[in-house]
Each structure stands twice: as structure tokens, then as C-alpha cells.
Design brief:
heterotrimer, A alpha+beta, B alpha/beta, C alpha/beta, A: alpha+beta, Ubiquitin-like (UB roll), Fumarate Reductase Iron-sulfur Protein, Chain B, domain 2, five-stranded mixed sheet, two-stranded antiparallel sheet, 7 strands, 40% helix, globular, B: alpha/beta, Flavocytochrome C3, Chain A, domain 1, Methane Monooxygenase Hydroxylase, Chain G, domain 1, 21 strands
Chain lengths: 321, 567, 282
């Protein structure tokens, strides 16, 4: 049985700062058989057409995370992506676009500067510091229940490929943002009962560009090459902040306002959410917005109606923690 | 420039654990880890099955002694028994230490580290984290290195190991981002660069960079390498890509089935069946295929690895990565269909001749992990012992180097040494060069696959040596087309090819010289183990002219006398 | 066609025009909406993590209210859609959680069984109602205008929760609708990106950068309007438009339409009746 074959165009981002003023695209046409991966296709181009094509790859098996790049605009691993699957996603028929990951500086072609990821892992204390003293290591393992292991099992799947980093909305808005992989790693550490530094870690997560900056766009979850439920982890660290009563942040107060409103009237008291989130002084910056709303007669009512059956809602908050 | 106390080349499990141990032994040391890839990309990450240790969590009657015997028998009695003893004795400690430092092992119901059966082991002693143990251990080690502030030079390529004939001087490396070639002087150097099975190219499970860089550099530096002919073929590589399907699939109960629907391993290892040692299972698959009981396809002949009877729940929980590999690379979901597999070049038992502390004949130069040959694996490595090897000896070498480095005073690395690399690399770009990298690389893989594969004969091996030598000659004319100094992947690939060719010569020559069958080295013309003539290690040296010479050295025996090896 | 209507908090307060415009034309299409008066706020993608169990119970209750009257649920807000579908998924796949929620709901005479579907107004128009049928009702085809679709994250992602109605990377449902209404569609990169609404109060600079980029692209692509099925995105793109465009140093302006307003326009209702004058950018 021979596989289907067709001519496919690869429109590839090129940039070598040594010789190029600015980036450009090279298009290569090659005959590709069904079942070939993007990596095999660009390896073929590199071997037979243009040996200057530069990109990282290593294990070729979706395990090491080296070959992440944007294929038809979406960040993924080249080695596990089928060329055939990409054909229906091409903007121009049979033209597959290959570009470096977003939110990283380009070193050359698809090779990007990766050290910011490592710096973030360092900033957020992404390691276990056990209670066991140096001289007692290796004698006995911690007893960890399967239930605990299940909580961070999926998070340990992360191969630091950077696809989530590349897709993340807030990363594109500010390079200092912790990033989805940073939050995932933080969650994995915070939930590991063997670690003793969660107090410090939660403090840093609570600061600017930390856990409260995630805008819930779910692009990370969509992109994750290992199908890790990253948003569960981000919600997990925020939940940890609630469990610890870490009230001194706008993010906490904002979320807290929602629970208070649902509990008291069932509906949001939109008029006061800003004040409750930012405090009186912080809300001064909201004045222009308030004026705009007033000008269109859209200011939300101060007194919000209470839904019928509110006592049943209150019971939910009493019975569940 | 002040020399480093220790430079570690390679940031896999062995390299990073060595760095951690060195810093713990003496926090004041100036240590650097040099790696051609970012640490978490290292090939340790691909190890799926697990790490062996006689913790006796699962089988309460398991002992270190049983593990030692399994290792020695698995090696077909070529392992040095003192080294194998250390490997197994240190195992419970290193596994527990990593657990203490956060390694996320799967757990038994009582909360202790889970263990499962693995090839060639009498008891269930393979500790695992689902089917991605290598990945999680590597991640844990990297996290701990960050915690300890280990200095990494990531994406630096090793060009040469420098010494003055007596002691280490350091290494010459290239900064891959800028193309700059520099000398890094050091009192000691630990080579932890991994194996060379990628020389089989199309028929290998390895990462693209498992090209034996450190071993080739050691060889060129006049340091002996050992047992190169012993290449392990893992029985279950995916049919089209050669990528690995972990032994764990068989450990969890998978069956190997031929085109008659038989679990054919009953003929070759009636007791252990699919969990015989890898060399035995690979040979069995080859025989079944050669005798017409395999399946045909464009991508070659193959066997079935059937996991369907294990059920979706078990597969999803314990073997998720394997399932993704089968789906991504073969289009097969193991829950519904058997996986098409065939043997693939997977591990190199051979490597730099090192002692029980990883020390080579040159003071201050060490080798650990797959790039070394101590020898703990002898003629065949047991599954789960490689992750163990890199940890145990990485730790030992790190400690030994830390204790001894301060007393070593290296001379400076000569400018001539640096110039040599600069000139060689410039030379690759000359217009009059005509050979193409891709062509030479593919031909090397083809000839090794055909002539130095699972079943070898004198005729095939002589042809292999001849063809490798021809490729070696043609390599002198290979052209690097990319002239940039910035991240020149064309250049790195050519340098890796150079290393593969050098080591391919040792593999074919060593296989030709060894006229017996032992472990993973099977000679159709010499089908039995010949302890009288060949119970010794093969040793290889490279002289100044680049010629390989062969010699031998005895095997260190111990408690376990030679005996027949059956499963 | 009859559905239980789940009202988004913002449509009751800051952006009432979204629902008032929908209520203008729903009868024209024969869509009956029974409002869930006793429904609470969905948690606005915050309750999920302040207390996961309370989130499940609150939204299990919301869905149970629809089940009690034997109807599927429609919402016209993306975040409500996600919150309800997320809770539904957990309750449908984790029996212990369903049991936990039903223990509390039974005291109110409610039970969550999983019978009622949770859908977005956009899906109902495109799928249940059908674009062909909708096209027949049009009296004012929007042929003179160019529309840039802005989907909003929570109707596309995470795609396993979104019922297969659209493709998160190459979405088309909103565009299909616009074309059937006679309108011209302008394609641009940010159509499936984030408006930054949920961090407007906490990280305003970054949020307006996101909406600013989307606005700038739509302006450059020559769109007359951006149309969005989410009132939260509408808020970010309309009420914060000045800050957003200033952040990305872009000029121009872009009028933002609610999904219910573009449908109303094609069905012949006036801009004033549909509340377009309520927007900040007119």
C-alpha cells in the first residue's frame, strides 16, 4: 500500500540578524507523502534544498520540547504535527506557514531566545525544598498518597516546550508576566506536600505580573502539546491564595466581590465592583469610565434586586466551603 | 582566566547529578555545565520505563544481591562485577534521594514508591512515574540545579577535550549562538554526553544529537574507549520512525504477536516471555521476521505489540505517552489496535573506559552515563538500569572530582588547540568541497543497519568496515553550505556526523574482531558465547594519524562465576 | 422554539442594550425565551477558583432551574456560557460532585440531571434556527457594510467544552451569520484573540493593549463595525476604546455591535431602537 502524495508549499520565516535588515519569507515547494510530519518535511528541505534553514529539534518524538514553532499561525511541536492535518488550516491552498514562536526574541529563523523561561522558573521558586536535612537524604521516601499524586500528576507532564508561552494573551501584552508554564510549575510545587517554601512562592505569585494577571483566555489550554489542563492549575494557585486568606491584592478582592454578591443578592453589584477591587484611591482612575457610562445613562443601579429564592443560594454557601 | 574546578559536558541526568553532588561536596567550587542543548531537552527525557532499585516496596523479598545477579546475568557476564555491585548497592539511596528532592514517582497504595516488572529482573523493582520516568527525573534534577545555582552554558558545542598526557586542561567549545570558539580551562572535566546509537540513523530510537560527541572527543584525545561493538537493539521501536515504545508496555502485560497470532516468545524465553532481556527479544523478533512470520509494509517488516487486553483505563493511566506516540507516529490507537513494531538501535553499552568513580586514565578526566563504559552493562543492559547508571556514577564522579580537583593544577590550553578547531571549521566552507552531509549520513546509517545490525557475519562486517572507511575518506571533502556564525545548525550536524563516523569505525571493527556471540552482539558465524577466547572487554585507541587500534582488557569477576544464560 | 433564558449580570446593568435589542426581534423569529428569574450570577470566571464546590452548586442550580421547566438554556454572554458548560461538564462526568450538588438542591425542590443543554444565542441562530431560515426574514440586507468579527475567548475555548460548534483556530460561525445577513466580512488576525476584559480592573495596561491591537487591526483592515457575541468584549472594545487605541498609538475609531444588534439591523430595526446610541463610540 503506497501513501498519497502531493506538492505542498512551505512558506517559512527567515531572519538572520547577521545579514538581514528585517525578516522575510522563503517559500519551498516539495512533494510530500501522507503521514509525514512537519519536522520531517522541513528536515527534507534542509537536507536537499536549503541547508541554512535554522530551527531546533532533538528527540523527534514529542518528548523533549525542542521543536516548538508556529505552524499556520498556531504554536505546536513540529515533530508530532502531521502535514496532512495542516492542509485544511492553510490560509492559501496547500501553503503551510512556518514561523518562530511568539513572545520570544528571534535568534535566527525559528530559533528563539529561551532564557526568559528559565529566569521565570527561578523567580517563582520552581523546585522542591524538602524539610529533610542534607545528611538524612536518601534514607526513606516521603509517604505520598495516590490522591495527592493525582493532583499534580498532569502538571509534571510539562516539557517546557513554550507553546503556551507563545500563545498567551498576557505574555503578548507584557514580557514580565509569569506565563502559563510558570503558573503550572508553581501549582505543581505548591501542591507538593514535600515542599516547604510555598509561603515565599505564594507571596511572589501574589505580586505584579503574577497569578492575578491571567485573563482567562484559555489559549494555553488550547495549545498545550501534552493536553495539560493548565487553567485548572492557574485556578488552583488562585484557590490556594483564597485558602490562605491572602487578601491583600486587587485580584483577590475582585474575585471575592463575586462570591459576596452571589451570596447576598444572587446578582452582581456592578456599581461597586471597581471600588471593592481597587479601593477608594485606586478607583479614582475609574472616574473617566464612570463618566462615560453616566453620559450614556448606563450607570448600574446602586441597589440591586435580590433574586427570588436567595435563601437557597445562601444555603449553598453555608453547606459548602 | 581562572580555570574552572570542574566542567561537566552534558546536562542530562548524569551531568546534572554530578554538578549537584560536586557543589554539595564543596560549595566553593567553580563549576560549569556545558551542553549543546537546553538541559531539559537532553535525551534522558526520552527514557520511559523507569529506574531500578531494590527498595522492596512491591516485592518485599527483593534484595540488592538479586539485583546484582540480574544485572550481571543480563550483561551476559561481561559486566565488571565490582561495578555492577556498586550500581545496585547505591540504587536505593539515589532513588530515595531524588524522591526526597521532589521527583514525582507513582505510588503504591501504601504511599511508597511504586515498582513494576521489567525485562530480565527476578523481582518487581523498576521504580517509575507513569511512562515518563526519564522526563520527570530530568526535570527534578534541573529544578534542583536551579535551586543550587548551577552555572549552565546551554547551547555550547564540545569541540575537543584537552590534556597534557597526564592531567586534564579543560575543553574547547563553540558558543552556538555566536559561533565563537573558546577554550574553557578546567582542573577536571566530566564527560556526560550520552550514547551513539543514532549512527544507525533511520533505524534508531535516539534523539538527533545522540551522536557520541564526547566519546569521539575522548578517542581523539588519546583516551581509550571500550566495548563499542555492543549496541543494544530495543525490541519495540515504531515501525516507521524507529521511535521507542517503552518496555513498560510489556511490563504492564503487553503481548508480542506474529502473523499467526502466536505469542512467539514462548519459543525463545518460555519463562520470562515478553520480559526476557532486550537482546533476546530483539533477536527473537528478527528470527520470526526472517522465517516469514512477520507483517509486511512499505516501511519494512514488523511485529505486533498488542495492548488491547490491558483495557483502556490501564493504558490511559500507566501508558499515556506510549499511546500518544502510537497515535501520532503510526496512526494507531493501542486501545483498539496492535502497535506495529520492530527492533531499533537504542542504547550503546560501549563508551569511554572509566573506573568505578568515572575516572579515566587521564587525571581529572571522567566519563559517566551512556558515554562511559565502566562496565556495568557488559554486553547487554537491563531496562531500568540506564537511568540508574547515570545517577549512581554521576554522583560518584561529581564527588570524586570535587574532592580531587583543588589539588590539580592544569597548564593552560594551548592556542594551537583552539586554532586547530578554528581551521577545521573554516575548512568546511571551501568551495572545492563536494560531499553532501545528508548523503553521507544516510549512507552511514544504511551500511550500519545492513552490516552491523542484530545478526552479524564476517562478510557483512568486513563490508561494513570498508564502507565506513570510504565514508570517512569522503567526509574529508564534506561541505558546510551555511556560512553564518549565528546558530549554524548545518555546521553542528556536520560535526556530529564526524563523530558518528569515528565511532562507527570502532563499532564495525570491534564487531568484526569479536568472534563469538554475547549479549547484544550476535554473530551468525560464531553463534555461541566463547568464554575462553572472548571473556574480555574490547579496547580501542586512536593514534595521532586517526587510525584505530584494538586491544583487550580483562573482566573483573566476583561472586558470580560464568554460567549459561537462559530465561 | 422555546428556551430558558439565562441573563448575564452585565446585560442587566451596564450593557442593557444587548438584551433589549434581542427582545425586539425574538418574536419575529418565533423564539420564545423564558427568563430564569431565580438564576444567579454564574461566577464570572472568578467563582471557579474562589471555591470550586460552590461554583458547581451555584451553576448546577442555574441549570436545574431550566431543567425544572423542561427547557434547554440560552445565554448571550460568552463567560456565562463557559461557566455553565464548565460546571455541566464536571457534574456530568464526576458522579460524586453531582451527588454533592443534588443533596443541597433537593431542599429547594430542584435536581440537576444533565438533561438541559447550554447554548449560546449565536449557536442557536446558526444551528437550531438555521441561517437559511434566518435569511428569509431579512428585510434590510447589510450589503453596504464591512464587519470584523470578534468572537471572544469563551465561545471558542477550551474547545472540548464548546460542543464542536466552531474551530478555535479558524472560527467561522459568526462570519457565516454576518454573510447570511448580507454583510461583508473583513478578515484579520485578532478575530479569535482576547479582549482582556477579565483583567481590566487588575492589569489595565496589559488588557487595553490586547483590545487596542484588535481594534487597530480591524481599523486598518477597513471594517465599518466590529461585531461580537459577548457583552464583556463589547465593553472592552467600546467603553475602553479610547484608552486601548491610545495604548497602541493608533488613530481612528470603530463602532462595536452586539450580536443581537446586527441581527436586529438586518431584520429592519433602527439603530436607535437597537440601542446603538448607548455605546460610547457612536
Amino acid at each position: 500500500m503506497t501513501e498519497e502524495k502531493k506538492d505542498i508549499y512551505f512558506k517559512i520565516f527567515r531572519f538572520n540578524p547577521e545579514v538581514d535588515q528585517k525578516p522575510f519569507y522563503d517559500t519551498f515547494k516539495i512533494s510530500v507523502e501522507k503521514g509525514v510530519t512537519i519536522l520531517r518535511a522541513i528536515n527534507y528541505i534542509k537536507d536537499h534544498v536549503d541547508s541554512t534553514l535554522s530551527y531546533r529539534f532533538y528527540c523527534q518524538a514529542g518528548i523533549c520540547g525542542s521543536c516548538s514553532m508556529r505552524v499556520n499561525g498556531v504554536s505546536k511541536l513540529a515533530c508530532t504535527t502531521q502535514v496532512w492535518d495542516e492542509l485544511e488550516r492553510c490560509k492559501e491552498k496547500d501553503v503551510i506557514t512556518i514561523e518562530p514562536m511568539n513572545n520570544f526574541d528571534v535568534i535566527r529563523d525559528m530559533v528563539v531566545e529561551y532564557t526568559p523561561v528559565i529566569k521565570k522558573l527561578e523567580k517563582y521558586i520552581s523546585w522542591v525544598t524538602p524539610k529533610i536535612k542534607r545528611e538524612d537524604l536518601g534514607k526513606k521516601e516521603h509517604i505520598i498518597s495516590e490522591a495527592e499524586f493525582k493532583v499534580y500528576d498532569a502538571a509534571t507532564d510539562c516539557i517546557l516546550c513554550g507553546a503556551c508561552y507563545s500563545e498567551c494573551s498576557m505574555m503578548s501584552a507584557h514580557r514580565e508576566y509569569i506565563s502559563p508554564l510558570g503558573l503550572l510549575k508553581a501549582f505543581r510545587m505548591v501542591k507538593d506536600s514535600r515542599d516547604t517554601r510555598s509561603d515565599d512562592r505564594m507571596k511572589i505569585l501574589n505580586e505584579d505580573h503574577g497569578m492575578w494577571d491571567c485573563t482567562h483566555c484559555y489559549r494555553c489550554v488550547e495549545a498545550c502539546v501534552k493536553n495539560i489542563p493548565i487553567m485548572d492549575a492557574i485556578q488552583g494557585v488562585r484557590n490556594e491564595a483564597f485558602l490562605r486568606g491572602m487578601k491583600n491584592s486587587e485580584g483577590y478582592r475582585h474575585a471575592y466581590a463575586f462570591t459576596q454578591d452571589i451570596k447576598s443578592t444572587g446578582r452582581l453589584k456592578e456599581s461597586t465592583i471597581a471600588v471593592r477591587t481597587k479601593g477608594i484611591f485606586g478607583s479614582i482612575s475609574m472616574l473617566p469610565f464612570a463618566l462615560k457610562m453616566m453620559g450614556r445613562n448606563r450607570m448600574p443601579k446602586v441597589f440591586v434586586h435580590t433574586i427570588p429564592g436567595i435563601k437557597h443560594v445562601k444555603r449553598i454557601f453555608q453547606k459548602l466551603k | 582566566m581562572q580555570p574552572y574546578d570542574i566542567i561537566i559536558v552534558g546536562a542530562g541526568g548524569g551531568g546534572m547529578y554530578a554538578a549537584m553532588e560536586a557543589l554539595n561536596t564543596n560549595p566553593k567550587l567553580k563549576i560549569a555545565v556545558v551542553s549543546k542543548v537546553y538541559p531539559t531537552r537532553s535525551h534522558t527525557s526520552a527514557a520511559q520505563g523507569g529506574v531500578n532499585a531494590a527498595l522492596a516496596n512491591r516485592h518485599k523479598d527483593d534484595t540488592v544481591e538479586l539485583h546484582i545477579f540480574d544485572t550481571i546475568k543480563g550483561s551476559d557476564y561481561l559486566a565488571d562485577q565490582d561495578a555492577a555491585t556498586i550500581l545496585c548497592e547505591d540504587a536505593p539511596y539515589v532513588v530515595r534521594e531524588l524522591e526526597n528532592l521532589g521527583a514525582p514517582f507513582s505510588r503504591l497504595e501504601d504511599g511508597t514508591i511504586a515498582q513494576r516488572p521489567f525485562g530480565g529482573a527476578q523481582k518487581y523493582r523498576c521504580c517509575y512515574c507513569a511512562d515518563r520516568t526519564g522526563h520527570t527525573l530530568l526535570t527534578t534534577l534541573f529544578e534542583q540545579c536551579l535551586k543550587q545555582g548551577v552555572k549552565f552554558y546551554s547551547e555550547y558545542y564540545l569541540l575537543s577535550i584537552e590534556h597534557d598526557g597526564d592531567k586534564a586542561q579543560g575543553v574547547v567549545v563553540m558558543n552556538m549562538q555566536t559561533g565563537k570558539i573558546e577554550a574553557m580551562p578546567a582542573r577536571s572535566v566530566i564527560i556526560a554526553t550520552g550514547g551513539y546509537a543514532k549512527m544507525y540513523w533511520q533505524k534508531s530510537s535516539n534523539a538527533a544529537g545522540s551522536t557520541g560527541d564526547g566519546i569521539a572527543a575522548a578517542l581523539r584525545a588519546g583516551i581509550a574507549v571500550e566495548d563499542m561493538e555492543f549496541v543494544q537493539f530495543h525490541p519495540t521501536g515504531l515501525r516507521k520512525s524507529g521511535l521507542l515504545i517503552s518496555e513498560g508496555a510489556r511490563g504492564e502485560g503487553g503481548y508480542l504477536v506474529n502473523n499467526k497470532g502466536e505469542r512467539f516468545m514462548s519459543r525463545y524465553a518460555p519463562e520470562k516471555m515478553e520480559l526476557g532481556p532486550r537482546d533476546l527479544v530483539s533477536r527473537s523478533i528478527e528470527i520470526e521476521i526472517n522465517e516469514g512470520r512477520g507483517f509486511d509494509s512499505d516501511a519494512g517488516q514488523y511485529m505486533h505489540l498488542d495492548l488491547r487486553h490491558l483495557g483502556a483505563d490501564l493504558i490511559l493511566e500507566r501508558l499515556p505517552q506510549i499511546r500518544m506516540l502510537a497515535i501520532d507516529f503510526e496512526g494507531v490507537d493501542p486501545i483498539k489496535e496492535p502497535i506495529p513494531i520492530r527492533p531499533t538501535a537504542h542504547y550503546s553499552m560501549g563508551g569511554i573506559d572509566a573506573d568505578n568513580d568515572g575516572a579515566t586514565a587521564i587525571k581529572g578526566v571522567y566519563a559517566v552515563g551512556e558515554c562511559s563504559c565502566i562496565s556495568v552493562h557488559g554486553a547487554n543492559r537491563l531496562g531500568g538500569n540506564s537511568l540508574l547508571d547515570i545517577l549512581v556514577f554521576g554522583k560518584r564522579a561529581g564527588r570524586h572530582a570535587a574532592l580531587n580537583a583543588p589539588s590539580l593544577n592544569p597548564g593552560a590550553i594551548s592556542t594551537a588547540a583552539v586554532e586547530k578547531s578554528v581551521k577545521e571549521i573554516e575548512g568546511f566552507s571551501h568551495h572545492d568541497r563536494t560531499e553532501r552531509y545528508g548523503e553521507l549520513r544516510d549512507e552511514l546509517g544504511k551500511t550500519l543497519g545492513a552490516n552491523a545490525g542484530i545478526y552479524r557475519t564476517r562478510a557483512k562486517l568486513e563490508k561494513g568496515v570498508e564502507e565506513v572507511m570510504a565514508i570517512k575518506e569522503r567526509f574529508k571533502n564534506v561541505r558546510v553550505n551555511d556560512n553564518s556564525a549565528v546558530f549554524n545548525t548545518n555546521l553542528f550536524q556536520v560535526l556530529e556526523l564526524k563523530n558518528m563516523i569515528a565511532l562507527a569505525e570502532t563499532v564495525t571493527r570491534g564487531a568484526l574482531a569479536r568472534e563469538e556471540s554475547r549479549g547484544s552482539h550476535s554473530r551468525e558465524d560464531f553463534p555461541v558465547r566463547d568464554d575462553e577466547k572472548w571473556h574480555k572487554h574490547s579496547i580501542f585507541h586512536m593514534n595521532e594519524k586517526g587510525d584505530i587500534t584494538l586491544s583487550t582488557k580483562p573482566v573483573t569477576m566476583g561472586k558470580y562465576p560464568l554460567q549459561a544464560r537462559t530465561y | 422554539m422555546k428556551y430558558a433564558y439565562y441573563i448575564s449580570c452585565i446585560n442587566e446593568s451596564l450593557s442593557m442594550e444587548a438584551d433589549t435589542s434581542m427582545n425586539l426581534w425574538k418574536n419575529d423569529l418565533g423564539i420564545e425565551l423564558v427568563p430564569l428569574e431565580s438564576g444567579t450570577c454564574c461566577g464570572g470566571s472568578n467563582l471557579d477558583f474562589t471555591s470550586p464546590d460552590q461554583f458547581l452548586a451555584v451553576n448546577g442550580r442555574n441549570i436545574a432551574l431550566a431543567e425544572k421547566i423542561g427547557l434547554d438554556m440560552i445565554t448571550s454572554c460568552n463567560t456565562c456560557l463557559l461557566g455553565l458548560r464548565h460546571a455541566k461538564h464536571i457534574l456530568d462526568t464526576q458522579p460524586e460532585k453531582k451527588e454533592m450538588v443534588n443533596q443541597i438542591l433537593k431542599e429547594e425542590g430542584l435536581e440537576y440531571t444533565g438533561k438541559s443543554e447550554v447554548k449560546h444565542l449565536l449557536w442557536v441562530l446558526v444551528d437550531d434556527y438555521g441561517l437559511d431560515k434566518l435569511a428569509e426574514k431579512i428585510t434590510n440586507p447589510l450589503t453596504e457594510y464591512k464587519f470584523a468579527p470578534f468572537y471572544g475567548c469563551h465561545i471558542l475555548r477550551p474547545s472540548p467544552l464548546m460542543g464542536g460548534y466552531d474551530d478555535p483556530n479558524r472560527p467561522h460561525t459568526l462570519e457565516d451569520l454576518v454573510r447570511r445577513l448580507g454583510g461583508n466580512v473583513v478578515d484579520y488576525e485578532s478575530k479569535n484573540k482576547c479582549c482582556g476584559f477579565h483583567t481590566l480592573l487588575v492589569a489595565e495596561d496589559e488588557s487595553v493593549k490586547l483590545s487596542g491591537s484588535a481594534l487597530d487591526e480591524a481599523i486598518t483592515a477597513g471594517a465599518d463595525f466590529i461585531v461580537t457575541p459577548c457583552p464583556l468584549c463589547h465593553m472592552a472594545l467600546d467603553a475602553y476604546q479610547k484608552e486601548a487605541l491610545a495604548k497602541v498609538q493608533s488613530g481612528g475609531k470603530m463602532r462595536i455591535l452586539h450580536l443581537s444588534q446586527i441581527v436586529g439591523l438586518a431584520l429592519g430595526y433602527s439603530e436607535k431602537a437597537l440601542g446603538l446610541n448607548k455605546h460610547v463610540v457612536v
